[in-house]
Amino acid sequence: MGLQLHTRDFHSTPIDEADRSASSDLIDFEALVGVARRQWFVLLCAMGVGAIFGFAYLLTAVPYYSSSVTVLIDRGNTQLAGQLSSIGGAVLDDEGSVLSQVEVFRSDTIALSVVDKLNLVGDPVFQVTPGSLPTKVLNAIRSLSDVSGWFASDNVPENDLASKRQAAAEKLLEELDVTRVGRTYVLKLDYLSPSSELAAKIANAFGDAYLIDKLNSKYDATRRASDWLQDRIAELRQKSVDSDLAVQKFRTANGLVSAGSVLVADQQLSELNSALIVAQSDSAKAEARLQRIQQIIASGQGDAVVTDVLASTVSNELRQKYLDASKREAQITARLGANHIQAIRLRSEMSEYQRLMFEELNRIAESYKSDLNVAKAREKSLTESVAQATGISATANETQVQLRELERESETYKNLYQTFLQRYQEAVQQQSFPVTEARIITRASPATAPSHPRKGVVLALFCVIGAAVGSGLGAFREFRDRFFRTGDHVRNTLGLEFLGTAPLVSGTRIASAEQISHPQSIVKLSTISNYVIDHSLSSFAEALRSAKLAADLALPNKQCKIIGVVSSLPGEGKSTIAINFAELLANQGSRTILIDGDLRNPGTTRAIGRHAQAGLLEALVENVEPSGLLLHNPRTKLSFMPAVIKHRIPHSSELLASNAMRSLLTTFSSQADYVVIDLPPLGPVVDARAIASRIDAFVFVAEWGSTTRRVARQLLSDEDEIRRKCLGVILNKVDQEKMKLYRSYGSTEYYYSEYSKYYQNE
Fold it and tell me: What is the biggest distance separating any 2 CA atoms in the chain, rounded to whole angstroms?
């Protein structure tokens, strides 16, 4: 048994087990293996019971014989029939069509045909219904539970042939099994019967009845189709002629003349639209040229030009003269000065040339304006022509909608007439064409050995059912097991440290009250109270050392550590843990005082101080000197303050929370290194809560396999101060043999065999 020693935060919160388990989405295989180890006996017993029921069923079951017929849905025949006609001979190219044939085999029509062919209504072998003992018992129970059948009339006419045929057909279908062989077009029919000869006869009869039904259904379908088509053809012929004549009359009445496939009005509208688009483009181009030359004239840019200026001879000559004059003026100005008469004359000529160029631009602008007016006039004329043609075309289109409707109706009637005429010819031929899409490829023969029940399968099935029931029982037992079993249960449920386990030990009586040698001595009546001293290297002692180390690490600066020992409910071994914990501390050289703080049920006093005449009550109520009330163990130097209860104390919580108790603890703190108080359990009374503020730390004791996790979690959640000060939990009364069933890989329990050599319990 491994022990874990850790410091812990007293302000940590408890972790709910459901929250911890919900944090993982993976299957805990270790937990499943642990469940199997713990519940294997239940599972084995359930499987044994299932096997017994299986043997009983096999001993009483009636043997059944199976005969099989295989039918091929022949696609070759189907395609041949389809070439002659598509009525009554659909090609089976999909899985749904093949599976539909399975339902045809199981139809009442085929079953009644088999009943009539083999005369099964009067066949005594077929009418007998044997069954196994469990089946007969179930039928008897079902008939007894059918209350409405008690009052049903038994006056059924014996000559009611229809009801007998229907009953025989239903019985046939109960024992018939039709399956598809893989992904093929083969159907297998299996029929079960107590008679092998009857099973073969019925299976073959089903195959023959299916083929006859396919031929009859095809003939009936084609005959009905041909009669109906003949009536429809005459009607469609007349409608086709009438609709074609209506189209021609409508064209003539509305003048819908067409050039090829297009009306003349539509053709003219298309040509006018094309011309209008060109005219609009010309107008936009002329307007853009005019706007550009007007901008040049308005800005007075002498060097700005347009395309027609570059093409004009006059403009080019004036520009050339302007450039020559500008060149000479620059030369004269450079040699003779800007005020020379030649320079002045040349500048005057340049101004004249510039004026003439602007006049030329104005002339070109006027020509642009004239072009724009011509383009606008042409665009306007075309727009009016398009509007007129559009009106004519719109009127024609509205009329043409009715024409197209008449043409579609005429074409529809023509196509229907041709289709129905072709189908009628096919139907007439199909009536005399004896081809079906199915044929029997294997006929049934009487079986030599029964096929049901399959003994191995039945026995295995009963064992599996037993295993399932056993698994359910085991799962229910596991679900109901909500006790503390492992350290992980402690950590996940309470969020507290797991200090260790105290194994279940048995004690023997070692003294009696009459053998007391000194009234101030501790007298132990059982070896359990002295277990930690007698077995100092045991796992029991190691768990208590873990509690001591946890106290030292959690309270490093306390000169005297006051430690309370609590549990959820009475009988969990809290007092035994408190006594041995105090003895361990004293035996290690620490000054230790043990106080029995359970004023309702002083178990510690009964265990080691039954002979005491006074104790804690006298110190608190009568102010008796505490030192005179202490009992001592001369071997370990442990001091013990008993609780001598002479009558019921209803106000025990007030006494523990009183100033007198505070003074007593203060006095003991100055005299000892550890004060261990055995407190009442948290469930029945509130005494532990009353004194919690004066306790430095708590050790929580839970009985292995007895203390429920829900109770402990709820009590510690209610006692927040106790939980915050709790050093950890000790699992008491642990059954080491059963503990092996709860170990999981990686846990401290799993490695118990590895480090058990460190413990010496004997």
Answer: 163
